[in-house]
Amino acid sequence: METEQKNVVFPLNRLPIDAQAVICGISEKAGGKAELLINMGFVPGERVTPVFSSPAGDPTAYLLGGCFTVALRHAEAENILVTEERYGN
Amino acid sequence: MGIKLLKQKTDCRQVRRLYLLGNPNVGKSTVFNAMTGLKQHTGNWSGKTVDAAMGKYTYNGTEYILTDLPGTHSVLSGFSEESVVSGEMESAARGSVTLILADASALKRGVALALEFIEEARGGAVLCINFCDIAAEKGIEIDFRRLSALLGIPVIGITAKRGADIKRLKAMIDGEFEKIAADISCETEITSPGARLKKADKITEECVSVPIREKRGAALKIDKILTSAAVGIPVMIIFLGAILWLTIRGANYPSELLSRLFGFLKPYIAAMFDYLPLPRFIQGIVMDGVYDTVTWIIAVMLPPMAIFFPLFTLLEDAGFLPRIAFNLDKCYARCGMSGKQCLTQCMGLGCNAVGVCGCRIMPGEKQRAVAVITNSFMPCNGRFAILISLSAIFVGGTVPGGAGGFVPMLCVLALICLSAAATWAVSGILTKTLFKDNTQTFALELPEYRRPEIIKTLGVSLVSRTLRIVGRALLVSAPTGAAVWLLANITFGGAPILTHISHFFDPLGRFLGVDGFIILAFILSLPANEITLPILIMSYTAAGSMADAGNLETLRRVFEANGWTIVTAVNMMLLTLFHWPCATTLMTIYHETKSRCILALSFITPCLVGMILCLFVKCSSILLKLIV
């Protein structure tokens, strides 16, 4: 049960603040946005941590790769799939 | 082929081409300015530079042309804000060298960009690592030699604000230009972004001594406070209020001093005319027309600009503006817009023409059009000074002391909030009707805070922005002042021509709760908003001159003598916020969008908003009078 939980893939917007995860990929629902997200640095294998949310709760700022902060709305973050375990490699 | 190569070589010898490429917000504009001595406006947010800028410098007898490309995440990408870069890069010939600029604290990004550039083999490249001082403070050590060996291109570490470092960079480019330009990697294997990033990760880990992710604690804490529900928005308003208060209080003294000085000088200059064999009316044009208008603008408009803009630039340089966009994004999301519109509005606060250019950072054509149309809702610095004067006269009173600065500050703050609210309302209507856009995206980088270089910022924003804008205003105001003086002094059928014209606009003015002179002043100040008030004052004081009109108390008497009430003043302020954009902005809008439709909408929309608000104020004041 525990090992299953660890490898579960879920959308980035469900990741709680300050928790770290690794990006597995971009959902197909993203359509044309996928390229933009990849260009912003949301590439598979990258570490990502939500660091703070705006007063209204949306958007949320994500620390990417430990050095770069990008703010995304929930609607965008939904398309980014992450896992808490290091994936692939 | 051989001939072509030869030709390129000779071209290279005459002028060497350099490109400046980098992730957003790594200090490209700072490096560009330092190398070329030009003053491109810099700011701590990504997308500040939206157009490729070119500059020249000569080193050791060789001329270099440096092109500053807007920030990009990828050498090839088709997104609106990055399209300029890809296009520019196409023209980068083999004989060129590209400086790939990276932030020492976020080296991996720069390394990934460098790897992509090398793969694309678009010319020689140098990886130039900026902000080495900040990185050193954080305890980050970079092994430049190892990095250079792994990447296969020269690597240099600099701190762009240090002159010696820029000299070192220039010397290095000069010494090795031919070698670097010729040394194009043959590795043409195109890797995926993911694989490239992993490679960058590996290279960075090998060359950087401290894992950077541990070092963001303090900045993160500030961010968490500035974006928290309880503190975030109040802090923003307090910051803006503090800047406004400093501007209003601070501008009082130099304004007073300047208008006294000009008032003191006037009789002496006028006396000189008595010795010149010129007709009497020439003296009228020059002294009461041109001199009064020009000195009024210097005395009343210059001080607030000279205080507000450097202060605002400091906030901008520190990296505060993207946080505002982040905090307010939800409001923009409700209107179908992106929080980035907030950045374009902030630019509009300086100059609407700049704000309109900045709308290129908006995602998608439709959102960009809406941002362009609503940009003039933000009072640019010319209109800003009108608001400050009027609110000081009619709302705060002219009493010196605490209340004298505090109440007008609240008034201007409220007006700016009203502008923001109008922007949201109109954007919401436009995105639901004319510019329906279902593909909203929002991705905004939040750059690290940087300690602004206070003295340099003050100098640059004072000289390059304030003086240039005042210069433009003076250029327009001198002939307008002369023309208005003539109109006010040539009588036709017993009254000055100006009075006849304003009578024509009087019904419209009365309908909106102002008068014909005010409407006429707005029409005549189409070339530059700064001249609205001088024109108005001259129209009112047609018979005499606007002597000592720099004094707020005198101004109040002039306005009250012409039937101004508090409703007139409020409506004048509303019309200042919402009327057509100035000629420069209109030209920029057409140039940017190439659409007559958007141009017309940009003209009509603020007029409609202004009319509706004025009517609302007028009707509610009538209702209030009926009740009381």
Describe this structure in words.
The complex is a heterodimer of chains A (89) and B (628). Chain A is 19% helix and 34% strand. Chain A has helices at residues 2-6, 33-40, 74-77, and strands at 9-11, 21-26, 47-53, 60-64, 68-72, 80-83. Chain A has a six-stranded antiparallel beta sheet. Residues 1-5 of chain A have low confidence and may be disordered. Chain B has a six-stranded mixed beta sheet, with helices on both faces. Chain B has a two-stranded antiparallel sheet with strand order 8-9. The longest helix of chain B is centred in the middle third of the chain and has 44 residues, at 232-275. Residues 1-13, 76-84 and 398-402 of chain B have low confidence and may be disordered. At the A-B interface, helix 2, strand 3 and strand 5 of A face helix 4, helix 8, helix 9, helix 12 and strand 7 of B.
Relevant terms:
heterodimer; A: alpha+beta; SH3 type barrels; 6-stranded antiparallel sheet; 3 helices; 19% helix; 34% strand; B: 628 residues; alpha/beta; 2 domains; 6-stranded mixed sheet; two-stranded antiparallel ribbon; 65% helix
How many distinct domains of chain B?
Answer: 2
Helix content of chain B: 55-70%
Percent of residues of chain A in beta strands? 25-35%
Instruction: Going across the biggest sheet of chain A, name each strand in turn.
Output: 1-6-2-3-4-5
Counting DSSP E segments of at least 2 residues, the number of strands of chain B comes to: 9
Number of helices of chain B: 25
Reported by name, the CATH topology of chain A is SH3 type barrels
CATH superfamily of chain A: Ferrous iron transport protein A (FeoA)
On the 0 to 100 scale, the average pLDDT of chain B is 80
Greatest interface by residues involved: A-B, 35 and 46 residues
Shape label of chain A: globular
The span between the termini of chain A is: 23 Å
Summed over residues and divided by their number, the pLDDT of chain A gives a mean of: 80
- Global structural class of chain A: alpha+beta
